[in-house]
Specification:
The chain is an alpha+beta fold. 43% of the residues lie in helices and 23% in strands.
Length: 256
């Protein structure tokens, strides 16, 4: 699951629903509320782990690097919206991170901000209520949070260029750092190597196309950034344990 890094519309909002959510490291320009309706989710946010349980919500601010992994099982809803919907909250926190971004929510709160509700005033009231609870837990200046900015710059670079033939030298040039320093900091921040991280983003794009029943594997490999169909097949099998064709047949073919 990859979210767009930029949204051109003001007052943008959408709700996504997931069973047993599992995402790759990503960030975007929007604010994100993940509501756990059932089960539990491990959230890695700015390299800090948080456990989000049933009837809890985690708040992700713009350009914070995060990924979610289900613990045994989960049923979650992700509410994504542009910061101009709640300008007072955004202006208050934009140079900070939430010390404890996990808050509890009443079940009816979720219904108020879901796509079923067209009342924007009600949506905003719920957002401000949950945001207020999170702010009470304290704010940390981004300047005090080691490597938070460089993490988001790295992930944004990969998100915007994964379909190109990029290397860690390209990343170093983009960041304005030496190759050696960039390699060192990348190893400190991420468990995957640079090439594997890029391939993870490429495969996420492939999965999105497979869900839409686009099954020209050679075209998918090329458009997602793999240099050869062989490297695409090898990477796919490494991460999913089967070929792209078998994965499509198992997950999506009968859902046309």
């Amino acid at each position: 699951m990859l979210f767009e890094t930029k949204h051109s519309k003001n007052n943008y909002c959408t709700t996504l629903h997931y069973k047993d959510i599992k995402t790759i490291p990503h960030c975007q320009s929007t604010i994100e509320f993940l509501f756990v309706r059932d089960g539990a989710v491990n959230a890695l946010l700015n390299n800090n782990n948080f456990i989000v349980k049933k009837d809890q919500c985690i708040i992700v601010l713009p350009y914070e690097v995060h990924n979610f992994t289900t613990i045994k099982k989960s049923q979650v809803d992700v509410f994504i919206f542009s910061s101009d919907i709640v300008p007072d909250f955004y202006n208050h926190v934009k140079n900070h991170v939430l010390q404890n971004p996990v808050v509890s929510f009443e079940p009816e709160f979720h219904d108020h901000i879901s796509e079923k509700s067209s009342d924007m005033f009600l949506k905003k009231s719920v957002i401000y209520k949950l945001a207020s609870e999170a702010v009470k837990g304290g704010l940390i200046s981004k300047g005090e949070l080691q490597n938070a900015d460089i993490m988001s710059r790295i992930i944004l670079f990969i998100q915007e260029n994964y379909n190109q033939q990029i290397t860690i030298r390209d990343l170093a040039a983009h960041l304005g750092y030496s190759y050696n320093y960039t390699s060192h900091i990348f190893k400190e921040l991420f468990p995957q190597g640079f090439c594997e991280m890029v391939n993870i983003h490429r495969l996420e794009e492939v999965i999105r196309h497979l869900k839409n029943h686009e099954t020209n594997m050679t075209l998918l490999a090329s458009e997602s950034g793999f240099s050869t169909i062989r490297s695409f097949n090898q990477s796919f099998k490494k991460h999913y344990g089967m070929s792209p064709r078998d994965y499509y047949n198992l997950k999506f073919r009968n859902k046309e």
